[in-house]
Amino acid sequence: MMRTLNSIIAISVSLLTYSQSMLPLVQDTNINVNHHEISIFGVGDYQSTSMGKDITKSFFYGGVIDESMKLSSSNRHDDINRFGIDLNTEMVYKNHKINLFKDSLKGLVIKAGIYNFSSLIYSKDLFDMAFYGNDMFTGDTAYFTGSQFNSMTFQKVGIGWLNKKSKSSFALNLIGVNNYLNGLINEGYLYQSQNVDSLEFLLSGEGVRSLESNYYKGFGLAVDIDYRFKMKKNEKEYVHFQLVLRNLGFAYLNNTENYLSNGVISVGSYQINDLINSETIFSNPDQVATDLSDTIITKGSLVMLPAMFQFTKLVDYNSSNQFQGFFGFRGYLNNAYVPMLFAGLDFKASKWCRLGAQTSYGGFSQLRWGMYSSFNFNHFNLGIASENLFNKSGESIIIKLSCAF
User: Fold this and answer.
1) Which of 10, 11, 162, 298 has the greatest number of C-beta atoms within 10 Å?
2) Cβ atoms within 10 Å, residue 229
């Protein structure tokens, strides 16, 4: 899993990009005088309601997680907490010269991308158990009920059409899944006696993970829809909006291992000392999953992709206003992701430079602040943004590079 995430980061850096929907999006209703357009964009984003980014960075890049880091994060935790990672890189080619379906307003879109979307809902007790071990719960009970996790890495190649004037587009994508992991604890607790001589562990839950040594664990289909429309503001101006659906689809995994557990689990195979500091859990997670399961079934599975949907009031490229506001919301087909509201202000510093700031609430985190800059030249555009500049529990960087010729 970590090797996959690190590979995606390396690919993103090498292409000078990281991408999510960049805020704000600019609407230009002029017919593109250039025949071809290539855009490379991506995102590197992780966020949490509670877990400190110093701990997350230690997992990504290596380093020691000391007691002060663990204590600081533990104190920020509520009963239920969220954590998520969104890493992706996408390349899009648009041909404005070709007339698809003999329609002068329909151009060609070809795209390819790689994505990782991971999420976690967990209790405070689960965090403390993972980082301190069960010695924190001597004579007490640790509760894990409601905790769930999901991680999926996949690639896509797609083809579709665009409207040269409105910039709306549609693409059908072939999906190849690299890894899949999913789990849910319906009910769970661990009780340890005061004398540390007995341990009771109740676990009722289920989990699924992809198997096979093949690079692709399964295949599927998904659509990307970018629909843009406008509403009249006054006699001369319109307000432009965008509705995006990205990676809306499914995949069939050829071979998955399904774990089922229901009842009080015998932990006789673990010595209590093995559980302290979570040595067994971290060193051999596959064995832990096997030992804690009543039933293990190997079969094919149909899974939904973590589709994104976003509604945005766009910035009008042709407006004479130096300041423009934008707002919207973003969501994912994921239980841990709370629909995120965002709003911001765009400043046209010059003909070739735009600056701005935004605030957002929701997602895997709570309140976040971000800034962006966009540089526009005749045939070249560079945008750099972050949706999370000051939060202690996450980081975000977004870069978009495009060229028209």
Assistant:
1) 162
2) 12
